Backbone:
């Protein structure tokens, strides 16, 4: 460790120690320290509250004060929107006090902490998937909870985000004329998130993609790929018979059917020429 790093760590330690001493006086009974933290929390001073509650959890191990302080430590971080720290402290509460009456609320707030870590759809969605898992686990564990309707709404919102991400990936592959990859990602939207608003649009775009794929294929592959467009149209009509996009879908089906006929005619013409 270089000299600068050593001095930085020492300075940080001294700053933290001095601040802690201002919040919790040496010799303060555990109940007094806890009450100081609670007063800070109720006044909305969550930063100082978190620091005090962290101290109480250390010096009061095995007491009810430490148990309640652990809960309020997680809540303090949550109210500061420090969701990674909040998730960690809710987890610690669950580990140490699994039968606490506040367990249901803690489980839900843990899921909410992950929900708030979920980034916009273009970024990595690991936190989104973890949040969905936590909400689903919560709904399974507490089917009669007052939080279940809100939890279900959060799951739907997060699934819409994942569907959007797959849809945008499909659009990228279509723009760059990577047609096979585009159809695969449209399928992911349709199969994994059929309830999302992106499923219908993905089916429409998949018809378009199969036609473009066929148009840009060698003659021997064109009939197969135009037929995939027609099959996708049939799936679209089956799933969304009253959709406003039906006219567009029918127009693309007509294009695909014409493509099949034209490709078959050219195949037949080539075979006749080879025979002659």
Residues:
């Amino acid at each position: 460790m270089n000299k600068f790093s050593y001095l930085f760590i020492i300075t940080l330690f001294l700053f933290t120690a001095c601040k802690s001493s201002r919040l919790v006086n040496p010799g303060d009974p555990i109940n007094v320290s806890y009450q100081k933290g609670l007063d800070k929390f109720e006044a909305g001073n969550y930063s100082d509250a978190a620091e005090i509650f962290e101290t109480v959890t250390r010096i009061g191990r095995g007491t009810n004060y430490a148990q309640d302080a652990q809960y309020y430590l997680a809540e303090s971080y949550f109210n500061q929107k420090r969701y990674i720290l909040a998730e960690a402290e809710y987890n610690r509460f669950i580990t140490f006090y699994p039968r606490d009456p506040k367990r249901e609320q803690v489980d839900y707030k843990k899921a909410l902490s992950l929900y708030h870590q979920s980034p916009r759809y273009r970024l990595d969605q690991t936190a989104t998937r973890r949040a969905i898992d936590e909400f689903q686990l919560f709904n399974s564990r507490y089917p009669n909870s007052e939080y279940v309707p809100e939890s279900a709404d959060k799951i739907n919102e997060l699934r819409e985000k994942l569907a959007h991400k797959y849809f945008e990936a499909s659009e990228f592959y279509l723009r760059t004329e990577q047609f096979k990859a585009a159809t695969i990602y449209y399928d992911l939207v349709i199969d994994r998130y059929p309830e999302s608003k992106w499923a219908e649009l993905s089916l429409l775009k998949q018809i378009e993609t199969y036609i473009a794929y066929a148009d840009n294929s060698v003659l021997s592959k064109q009939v197969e790929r135009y037929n995939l467009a027609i099959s996708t149209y049939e799936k679209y009509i089956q799933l969304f018979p009253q959709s406003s996009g039906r006219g567009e879908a029918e127009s693309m089906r007509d294009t695909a059917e014409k493509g099949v006929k034209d490709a078959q005619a050219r195949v037949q013409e080539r075979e006749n020429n080879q025979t002659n």
Summary: Residues 1-21 have pLDDT under 50 and may be disordered. The two ends are 85 Å apart (CA to CA). Residues 246-275 form the longest helix (30 residues). The CA atoms of residues 136 and 213 lie 39 Å apart.
